[in-house]
């Protein structure tokens, strides 16, 4: 049986990495067959593309180039890592996916939804996630949390207004796609992890 594809989305500092780690502990405890991967990157070629995209020195990169590089890394990662794992019946947990492009490049950079949908047609049509977990925390709160831990990559160098547009972008995606479910992050990381786990159960994915 084909596996299931679960993606995590949210603003910078929303706690995706922590939540994915806590989920992986729970999945290991129940003996689930799963892999954890991430975008941009997750495979050798895609990780090389990631370096170019996030390099703080690449200030000359235009928005279209950025969007196309994310799409290029995505398709490589899908073919090399995601598709074989799904075909082997595994649960694939991916840190960011096409919704990041819709929110960051489509909404915040202003390239628009249509452009991002067009360059990501294969991802959207052939590999729609079974569930997208959106960690719902405002960019202001997320920024506070992340304070002091910034890596200063090209996306993190953008100001708060950019990240507000990213968040607004996510909120409109939430209305459009029923596969996206918001998880509130008001409490402790363990409370959020319980909510995430309960959501996967409710959707019949574990
Ligand atoms: P990463 O260090 O993985 O950030 P985070 O820990 O917040 O996930 O860097 C990924 C960056 O790339 C992040 O700023 C979001 C951005 N991004 C896009 O702008 N578009 C995309 O399609 C993807 C996948 C990521």
Q: What's a concise summary of this model?
A:
By secondary structure, this protein is α/β, with parallel strands linked by helices. The protein has helices at residues 16-29, 44-54, 63-87, 98-108, 113-119, 121-126, 139-146, 160-176, 189-202, and strands at residues 5-9, 34-38, 91-95, 131-136, 180-184. The chain has a five-stranded parallel β-sheet, sandwiched between helices.
What does this structure look like?
It contains nine helices and five strands; from the N terminus they run βαβααβαααβααβα. The chain has 206 residues and is an alpha/beta fold. α2 (44-54) packs antiparallel against α3. It has helices at residues 16-29, 44-54, 63-87, 98-108, 113-119, 121-126, 139-146, 160-176, 189-202; strands spanning 5-9, 34-38, 91-95, 131-136, 180-184. A five-stranded parallel β-sheet has the order 2-3-1-4-5, with helices on both faces. Thymidine-5'-diphosphate (TYD) binds next to α1 and α4. Thymidine-5'-diphosphate binds next to α1 and α4.
């Amino acid at each position: 049986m084909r596996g299931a594809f679960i993606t995590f989305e949210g603003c910078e500092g929303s706690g995706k990495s922590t939540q994915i780690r806590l989920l992986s502990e729970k999945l290991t405890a129940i003996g689930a067959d799963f892999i954890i991967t991430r975008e941009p990157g997750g495979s050798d070629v895609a990780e090389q593309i990631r370096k170019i995209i996030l390099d703080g020195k690449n200030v000359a990169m235009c928005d279209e180039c950025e969007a196309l590089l994310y799409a290029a890394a995505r398709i490589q990662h899908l073919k090399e890592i995601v598709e074989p794992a799904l075909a082997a019946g595994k649960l694939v947990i991916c840190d960011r996916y096409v919704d990041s492009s819709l929110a960051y490049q489509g909404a915040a950079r202003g390239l628009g939804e249509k452009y991002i949908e067009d360059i990501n047609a294969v991802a959207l049509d052939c590999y729609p996630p079974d569930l997208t977990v959106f960690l719902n925390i405002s960019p202001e709160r997320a920024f506070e949390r992340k304070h002091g831990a910034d890596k200063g990559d090209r996306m993190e160098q953008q100001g708060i207004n950019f990240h507000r547009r990213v968040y607004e972008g996510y909120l409109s995606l939430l209305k459009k796609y029923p596969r996206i479910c918001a998880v509130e992050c008001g409490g402790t990381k363990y409370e959020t992890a319980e909510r995430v786990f309960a959501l996967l159960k409710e959707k019949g994915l574990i």
